[in-house]
Amino acid sequence: MPKPRRTVAREENVLIVDEKSYNQKEQKENHDRDLPKLTDEQKKVYDEIVGAVLERTGGVFFLFGFGGTGKTFLWKILSSAIRCRGEIVLNVASSGIASLLLQGGRTAHSRWETFWWKGYVFGGDFRQVLPVIPGAGRAEVVCSALNSSYLWKHCKVLKLTKNMRLLSDNLTAEEATDLKNFSKWILDVGDGKIEEPNDGEAEIDIPEEFLITDAEEPIEAISREIYGDASDLQDNTDPLFFQGRAILCPTNEDVNMINEYMLDKLNGEERTYLSSDTIDPCDTAAINDEALSTEFLNSIRVAGLPNHALRLKVGCPVMLLRNIDPIGGLMNGTRLQITQLADFMVEAKVITGDKVGVKVIIPRLLITPSDTLLPFKMRRRQLPLAVAFAITINKSQGQSLSQVGIFLPRPVFSHGQLYVAISRVTSKKGLKILIVDSEGKPQRRTTNVVFKEVFKNL
Ligand SMILES: Nc1ncnc2c1ncn2[C@@H]1O[C@H](COP(=O)(O)OP(=O)(O)OP(=O)(O)O)[C@@H](O)[C@H]1O
């Protein structure tokens, strides 16, 4: 066994060592590179927060800005401004998908207890999808948002208003107006201002230019629109191709339909990985229950748990369902492209985040579903992956994509989903929406859900 490093032994806490192990020179270079890029409103926020930390005045801040205003960009520069001075920043997020956007990001867990705080910065956009609480109604979801908390009165709200995702240089006056209108339409959807008066749910018209109206076979139509001819995909070696594209759907069921279709079309070596499912031995009540047969366990599909039968092909994009290596960029939500299929593992190339292009091996893991209403504890040994030609709207939160296909074989069902979907896109021409009725006929209207009471006291 190697001896423990003395430096580690002398420090009181390994988490503090962990947080202080950032390369200060690298952090300073990142900081100095991005500082001149800040817009005036971003710089104001930066000055206020960095000032409170450096002058030790502390404070509780809430950074409020709609999708694409640069909240993540600011988190990064604020983190490097503080880390380059050898101080500690804890980036925590309420979901894995958000935490993977930041260096050293984690989901909010027990780390909190370890540190003494000089300041808190919260942030977000109340127009986006709110915390998912299984079985909760509108009131409970709204009450789970930060501005319903007793902490809210201590928060100083800082605002960002300029959509940086849609920012382009060298626009003609006409293009600039067009972009401004697009940006406004996205916000109006987010604020529930279209088809007013409404109390949360409204049928809204989608502008013609985004609609796919000619679709005999809806799944084929949306897939072709975003990925072109699927038979050419496997030879596509450009990591940016998949990085910038996704089809977004409201539910996992819709996502599965598209992924199966795309897998059928993709030429490439194929394997189906079957999981081994068991009852967790610590669940002594269920371990001998004969009703919980292997076949029954195999049939269970819950969010966050890879399927029992996972069909993969070389060349297909996949999404990680577990945090494997946060520092190496392998987090719940990271997207990869399969490069080799082996007996109990796969090789894949990272296509999102800072580690784009890096090849990694993904092994099988023993996974216990975390968010489940199952009345017993099960374990599944499987590759922690799901095919990701299509992903749910909730999983897309926080991502910037150049080509977004929104497939709505059923309307969105929760606050902010339509807004999150349409605000992922980096340009107007990259957005396509296919709405179909129960008979598969293309439609021009869809439901928008906005719980307006969540915007109170902002
Ligand atoms: N000052 C800036 N200079 C250059 N690019 C910027 C700047 N601010 C933001 N961006 C870019 O704009 C895009 C959107 O920014 P970012 O992802 O930080 O927004 P966000 O507010 O976190 O969005 P969301 O709420 O949808 O997650 C990113 O590609 C980011 O790199």
Description:
There is one protein chain. The protein is α/β, with parallel strands linked by helices. The chain is built from 14 helices and 22 strands. β19, α14 and β20 form a beta-alpha-beta unit. The termini are far apart. The relative contact order is 0.14. The site of adenosine-5'-triphosphate has 18 residues, from α5.
List the helices and strands and how they pair.
Layout: H1 6-10, H2 14-19, H3 24-34, H4 40-54, E1 60-65, H5 71-83, E2 92-93, H6 96-99, E3 106-107, E4 120-124, H7 138-143, E5 156-160, H8 173-191, E6 201-205, H9 218-227, H10 239-243, E7 245-249, H11 252-265, E8 270-274, E9 276-279, H12 294-298, E10 309-313, E11 317-320, E12 335-341, E13 345-350, E14 359-363, E15 365-367, E16 378-382, E17 385-387, E18 390-392, H13 393-396, E19 403-408, H14 417-422, E20 431-436, E21 442-443, E22 445-449
Parallel strand pairs: 1-4, 1-5, 2-3, 7-18, 7-19, 19-20
Antiparallel strand pairs: 6-22, 8-10, 9-16, 11-12, 11-17, 12-13, 13-14, 15-16, 20-21
Helix pairs in contact: 3-5, 4-5
The chain binds adenosine-5'-triphosphate.
